[in-house]
Known about the structure:
- By secondary structure, this protein is of the alpha+beta class.
- It has one domain (21-86): SH3 type barrels, CATH 2.30.30.
- Helix content is 20%, strand content 38%.
- The chain contains one helix and seven strands, in the order αβββββββ.
- It has one helix spanning 2-19; strands spanning 22-26, 31-39, 43-47, 53-57, 61-65, 73-74, 85-86.
- Strands 1, 2, 3, 4, 5, 6 and 7 form a seven-stranded antiparallel sheet that branches.
- A hairpin with a 3-residue loop joins strand 2 (31-39) and strand 3.
Amino acid sequence: xxxxxxxxxxxxxxDRMCAQSDTLYTKKQQKITCKxxxxxxxxxKYTLREGPLYVMNKNDVLKYTLQRGIPSLCLAMNCxxxxxxxxx
Length: 88
């Protein structure tokens, strides 16, 4: 019984960790699971787990999905945001 409870607890924790990530889809067919920190007119700033800050040009990104359930936005078709969006 304890083993079964431990297994369900581990599955729940892993599911929570995976669900709390943002995803970038690049033009080079890469899927990057990260934490997006800032989206402005020309670039996206993100981190991978507890690592350094990365900056990617918006022209290199096809779309992105945020953890809050915000739908994917297509960036390749020049669907630019008019204002800077800061995500915490």
